[in-house]
Amino acid sequence: RKKVTIQTLHQQKNNGTPITMLTAYDYPTAVACSSHAVDITLVGDSLAQVCLGYSSTTELTVSEMIHHTRAVARGTTHPLLIADMPFGSYHTGMEDALRNAVRLVQEGRVEGLKIEGGAEIAELVKKLTSVGIPVMAHVGLLPQRHTAMSGYKVQGRNHASAQRILEDALTLQEAGAFSMVVEAVPKELGQYLTEKLRIPTIGIGAGPHTDGQVLVWDDMMNTWNGHKAKFVRRFANVKAERDVGVASYCEAVRARAFPDPQAESYSADKSEWELFL
Ligand code: KIV
Ligand code: NA
């Protein structure tokens, strides 16, 4: 497969080819994405909950993120590789933000960064873009602000809120964002943003009219018992398969049905073994 570039994604918007994006947190998942028509592999900070067992993305550090992006990078071929800037890594001033961004690219080996926020991060987007670090914006529901937003709620339901998201989106585009994740908004707003922006929109819970779709790996694969949002579709049931595997293994060991003495065991050379007897 051909390497996906920012230019490829912009062409996809213009010729109407939907962009496919999936999250990955480790090497085997990165290989899976690279083995199929995934355009963008995202090391999302959902890493915190679905992979590391934290209760919020706000607990994830830059070093933890880098540990995982390096593994994902080793398994990534054609997809564009993006990571989330973790909560706190871009809040304490431009220098800190730049340093963390550089770490994520240099040590973490990602090709671009996704950053949650509206007009208030436009200067940062401009700065990173100016030094050659591509930025994917993220508007609508911002999970890093779930406490301030009183939970994980659909955004842009009334006119004022939708207007604010549209203005943020246009500001981020002007600041140089190369694409934009739009999370948990009415499908009408997902479509409107997609029509108003030159850059590709990638929706999650933003309806069928965005330029692309993204889902969290563990949600779409059903690997865990986490809350299933309305916008999640289960494309596979890994948890069921995995549970069958673990239960059968334990049962077979307890019953001494594993390993099989022939098919799954080595045999000694008879003449050598006789020396013991
Ligand atoms: O962290 C994440 O997985 C994300 C996607 C859901 C867009 O930000
Ligand atoms: Na995220």
UniProtKB/TrEMBL annotation:
Keywords from the UniProt entry: Pantothenate biosynthesis, Transferase
Matching InterPro entries: Pantoate_hydroxy_MeTrfase, Pyrv/PenolPyrv_kinase-like_dom, Pyrv_kinase-like_dom_sf
Enzyme class: transferase
Pfam families on file: Pantoate_transf
Organism of origin: Hohenbuehelia grisea
Protein's job: Catalyzes the reversible reaction in which hydroxymethyl group from 5,10-methylenetetrahydrofolate is transferred onto alpha-ketoisovalerate to form ketopantoate.
Name of protein: 3-methyl-2-oxobutanoate hydroxymethyltransferase
UniProt cross-references to NCBIfam families, sorted A to Z: panB, PRK00311.1
Pathway where it operates: Cofactor biosynthesis; (R)-pantothenate biosynthesis; (R)-pantoate from 3-methyl-2-oxobutanoate: step 1/2
